[in-house]
Amino acid sequence: MGLIHLADHNENMVPLKIVEIFENVAMQLATALQRVWMQQELKDSDKKFSQLFKYMLEGFAFCKIITDENNVPVDFLYLAINDAFERLTGLKEEETVGKRVTEVYQISGTMHLI
Q1: Is 69 helix (H, G, I), strand (E, B) or coil?
Q2: Are residues 46 and 1 in the same domain?
Q3: Residue 67 pairs with which residues in a beta bridge?
């Protein structure tokens, strides 16, 4: 990650307590820098995959499965869709995202997804 070098002209002139303080500061700084770098990498990755999702040619809907009390899938909730999904299905984002498929397609009764 990095190095803080503390040198003096005469050996053992810097008290051990000062060296320990500098080591502690160096460790905290390294941890903070690593966190910042990781957050930036995550942002870059998120942006790249968001663009891939948005501009891919295949229609894609990211959904959450909804189950009944027996853990049987009975519906799903649209969490996100891409532009191609809108073009291919005619369903717009504001009509789907945050809604259940039974609501979007006006399906009544029990769905059997599996």
Answers
A1: coil
A2: yes
A3: 73
